[in-house]
Amino acid sequence: MSRVIWAALILLAGAASGADAPPPDERIASYQEFRHAFDAAEYTLALPQAQRVVELTRSQFGNEAPQLANPLTNLGTTYYRLRNFGKALDSYREALTLLDLQGNATNDKLVRPLHGMGAALRALQRDGEAIAPFRRAIEILRNREGLYTPAQLPLLKELIACYQSTGQFADGGREQQYAFNVAETAYGKSDLKLLGPLDDYARWHEVLGQYSAARLLHARAVAIADDKLGSRNLLAIPALRGIARTYRLAFLNGESEESAQAAVTLQDQLTPAGVARLAGAPSIEGERSLRIALDRLTASATPQPQLRGAVLIDLGDWYMTAGSAARGIATYRDAWQALGPDEAPKVLGAPSIILYRPPAMAVARKQLDPETHEDEEVQLRLSVQADGDVREAIVANPAPEREAAEKAVISAVKRAQWRPGFRDGQPIAMTDVEFRERVYIRKQKEKDKGKEKS
Fold this sequence. Notes:
Blueprint: H1 3-17, H2 24-39, H3 43-61, H4 69-81, H5 85-100, H6 111-123, H7 127-145, H8 153-165, H9 169-187, H10 195-207, H11 211-229, H12 237-253, H13 257-261, H14 275-280, H15 284-299, H16 305-321, H17 325-348, E1 352-355, E2 373-384, E3 390-395, H18 403-415, E4 417-419, E5 421-423, E6 426-428, E7 430-442, H19 444-453
Helix pairs in contact: 2-3, 3-4, 4-5, 4-6, 5-6, 6-7, 7-8, 8-9, 9-10, 10-11, 10-12, 11-12, 12-15, 12-16, 15-16, 16-17
C-alpha cells in the first residue's frame, strides 16, 4: 500500500473517530503485549496492557462501539485471574451492554462475557445470580451450534454447580442428565473423553445420596479406561477412588430404596462386561479399589506423587470411617511422605471434613422462598483435636435472629467426621479452624405475621 493511500486511511479514521484517535497499529501492539503476558500467566503485567487496549479502542471507535466488547472481556478475564472479581464483573457487564445494543440476542460474541460474568458471580458467592448468565450463554450456543453441541459442556458444569449450591436439585439433575447425554452423543459410549462426564454424573448422584447409581457410573469409567488402555492404566484411578467413596458414603449415610432404584435406570447404559460385577460387589471392594489404584501407581514408570498422596488420603479416610483411627493416621503419614515437604502441608496441613451433613435449614439442603426467607452465613471457629474430634465450636459472627441456626450448624459440625491437621507428618490439635455454612433465616416481617396470628 502506498504512503498516500495509508495517510488517507488514517485521515478517514480520524474524521470518523476524532482527530486524536490513535493509529490502529498502536492498539494492535498493545494487544500483542497483553496477549504475551496473559499467556505466560503474568497477569499483573497483562493488566495495564489490557486497560491500554480498552482505552485505545474507545478512543478509536467511540464509547458505545461493539469493537470494545472483546477488549473489555479480556480486561474482565485479567481481573478475574487476579482475583479482583468485582472489577471483573464490571468489565463483563459493560461488554454485554455494548453487545446487547446491537440487537442480536444470539450473537456468539455474547458467550464469553456471559461465561465470565457467571464465573465472577460464583467467585463472589452469588451463585443464584450466576444462573441467568450461564443459562443465556448455553441457549445461544444451542441456537447457533445445535442442541447437542459439546461447546456447552463447560457452561453446563458451572450451571449445575450453581443449582447444587442453591439447593435447586431438580433443575440441577435435569441439566446433569442433559450434559451427560450431550457428552455421550458427541464422544460415543466408549471413548476416553467420556471419563470426565462420567465422573461429573457419578458425583451428582453422590450428592443426591444415590450411591449405587454413582458406583455404576464409576465402574463404567473403569471398564472404558481398562478396555482402551489395559488394566494398569492410570486414567481409571479417579473412578476407582469414586467406587471406594460411594461405598464409604453408603456405609455412613445409608441409602433409601428409592435412591437405590436410580441405579436401575442406568443399566441400559452399562455395556462393558465387568460393570455389574464391580458395582454389586461387597463393601470390602471399596478398600480393594484403592489398593488397585496404589498398585497401578507403584507399577507406573512415571512417579505420580500427588496422585499417590491423594489415593492414600482416601484410604486413610476409609479406615477412619471404618473406626480404625490408628490405621487411618498411619496411612495419612504415608500420604505425607508421598506428597513431600512442599506439597504435603498444603493438602494435610489443616483439618478437613471427611463427612458432613448440613443441618435442615442449610441452603445446600433445599431452596426456600426468597419472599419469606433470606440466607445468611454462619461463621465458626473450631478446635479440632489430633484424633479428629471437634472439641470446641464458637460462632464468630453471632446474631440473635439466627441463634437456632447457629446451634444446628455447631451440632452438625461436631457430628461430622474430621481428618486432623498434620505438622511434619504427625497429627496435631489445631485451634481457630474456620468453618462457614449458609443458612436460611425467616424474614422479620414473616415472624411478625406469625405473632399477630397467635
